[in-house]
Prior knowledge:
Helices cover 35% and strands 13% of the residues. It is α+β, with helices and mostly antiparallel strands.
Amino acid sequence: MASAYKRGNRWWIHYRDAHGQRRTEASTARTKKDAMLLAADLEHQAARQRRGLEPIPPADGGGTLGELLNWWLETYAKPRTSHDRDRYTIRRHFLTDPIAALKLVDVTSGVSSGSSSARPRLTARRH
């Protein structure tokens, strides 16, 4: 059964995930009622996943960033004229970096490794 408790200034929630394991997470809820509703919603979604009504996310997080980039190169980039350049860029800047070993669920906008000056800029240039 889902539950919530306060530790410091944060509400923490307990619930069972789609694999039947107990999970504890910090929530953004401001009240106990909101935290309980969030925990109940997560547990309800997990129950639907266990019954096959919703897809269950892979236990390994869907693989690593490096595997995804290699799959993209072989599936989408291969027929493009820029395939060689794409392959070079991805291998040089991402596959040789420790970030390639991260699980997809662990990759967020805050994850970075190495110095930021060595990273390629991914923003569009203004003319």
